[in-house]
């Protein structure tokens, strides 16, 4: 069951999004277990009826055989950070950045997003990170309360273990902030995502413009911070997630031992496990496996880790995240549909399963009584093309 704070967030969405009635007819309706020809009716933001047949009632939208699917649910995206810092060291005004981020996601079919914000800063060196999450969260929550956004926004705090200020920054948040997800991030060089220091150097040097000496110092700093704060920060972040009523996620699990630790912490889903060993251990421990849509579309990880498609073929993939390319989420679902020959199963990786992982009980599927987040999609040479996006019954794209 979702927390009272998430329930309050959803009630706030309903107050701010007034919608009329809508009927999408003569469509291929993607239900949880099958695809039917039929219609979906939404009244006051809620799905009220699903009917079979190609009849187009008066006033309905004739979808002419297009797919109608649930709106996409995104649990982890770097996109908001890209908008508030469009280039390294460029601080863009937050409210315009949030509005642009919201509009971009709506245009790609994402109707619910957990906006990932880093908590845990490093104040020294060229690789420094300055705290920003509390201020950004305040602006996001105010904008949401004012009904500014097209889609539903919730908070995801990325708890950076290799930092100086993690627990202080987490303490700035309370249950009233309705934090939905806290993820445990350990980016210590030489393990997890960046076992290959060459890949880390390429990533960081390009993003932060570091020379060899500065990169070596950056690595030394992160290793020192992990040794100094790692155990304290990990234990503290788990406790803070419980205090906030948030779902706990792991990040970049690589070994069965990593997953065993995640299971002891009560992790609900694993973001981007880097090996098949870790994915298999997650499955054995009842932890949902999330992989990145860019990994799936590109055919491999940019960091040299396990390919999402390999996990999908081994039935070890549960959730897909757009990660750093919002438009990749819908594209990945239809790619999985071809791989599995099962469109409902594929769509669930970006709708029902992430909604369940985040304890959202009012969305993620086409079913009477659920929130009217729906997409109209047409295939063009195997590429899904959005023809319409509705959030809470209101057209947003």
UniProtKB/TrEMBL annotation:
SUPFAM superfamilies: Composite domain of metallo-dependent hydrolases, Metallo-dependent hydrolases. One of its GO terms (molecular function) is hydrolase activity. This is Alpha-D-ribose 1-methylphosphonate 5-triphosphate diphosphatase. Its EC number is 3.6.1.63. Keywords: Hydrolase. InterPro entries: Metal-dep_hydrolase_composite (IPR011059), Metal_Hydrolase (IPR032466), Metallo-dep_Hydrolase (IPR051781), PhnM (IPR012696). Signal peptide: none annotated. Coiled coil: none annotated. It is an enzyme of class 3 (hydrolase).
